[in-house]
Amino acid sequence: MRFYWDGEDEPSVEAPIADLFAVGHEQYAPVNSLAVVVNPSSAMNCYWPMPFRKSCRITYANESADRDITLTYQINYAETDVPENAGYFHAQWRRAVTDPENPDYTIVDGIRGKGRYVGTFLAWTQLSDGWMGEG
């Protein structure tokens, strides 16, 4: 899923749909917060303010080569004046494999301009055999 604000060439939001709604590895888990709600049967709701001034373009792409998807969506909006100092909504998805010798991973880096950091959703998977940290 990609969101482009006001004619951008690069998306301000770029993430797999499930991950944008805090559903890691496409496995349902209930989420109940002010900004995101995930209910059984794939009902995912997002209430982040996402102001734009001239245009908004949202694109969806099925990048899974082995299966079709069904996507049902509803986008609600209100035409209103947007304050000059209103910020744009940004979200980015990343995947990384850390090195056991250097397991540090930077979540936020290189941000420019004013804004508010509201959090990180992290889904983690053990990708190697061996000690699981218990016993």
Q: Could you outline the blueprint of secondary structure elements for this entry?
A:
Blueprint: E1 2-5, E2 13-14, H1 17-20, E3 31-32, E4 36-39, E5 43-46, E6 56-59, E7 91-92
Parallel strand pairs: 2-7
Antiparallel strand pairs: 1-2, 1-6, 3-4, 4-5
Q: How much strand content do the residues show?
A: 15-25%
Strand order in the sheet with the most strands: 6-1-2-7
Total DSSP helices: 1
Major beta sheet summary: 4 strands, mixed
What general outline do the C-alpha atoms trace?
Answer: globular
Strand tally: 7
Instruction: Provide the structure class.
Output: mainly beta
Order of helices and strands: EEHEEEEE
* Distance separating the two termini: 41 Å
* Cα-based radius of gyration, to the nearest Å: 18 Å
- Name the average pLDDT: 86
Query: What's the helical proportion of residues?
Result: under 10%
Low-confidence stretches: none
Features of the shown structure:
4-stranded mixed sheet, 3-stranded antiparallel sheet
Give a brief rundown of this model.
This protein is mostly beta strands and 135 residues long.
Describe this structure in words.
The chain is an all-beta fold and 135 residues long. The chain is built from one helix and seven strands; from the N terminus they run ββαβββββ. A four-stranded mixed beta sheet has the order 6-1-2-7, with no helix packed on it. A three-stranded antiparallel beta sheet has the order 3-4-5, with no helix packed on it. β4 and β5 (43-46) form a beta hairpin. The longest helix has 4 residues, at 17-20. It is globular, with a radius of gyration of 18 Å. The chain starts with a strand and ends in a 43-residue tail after the last strand.
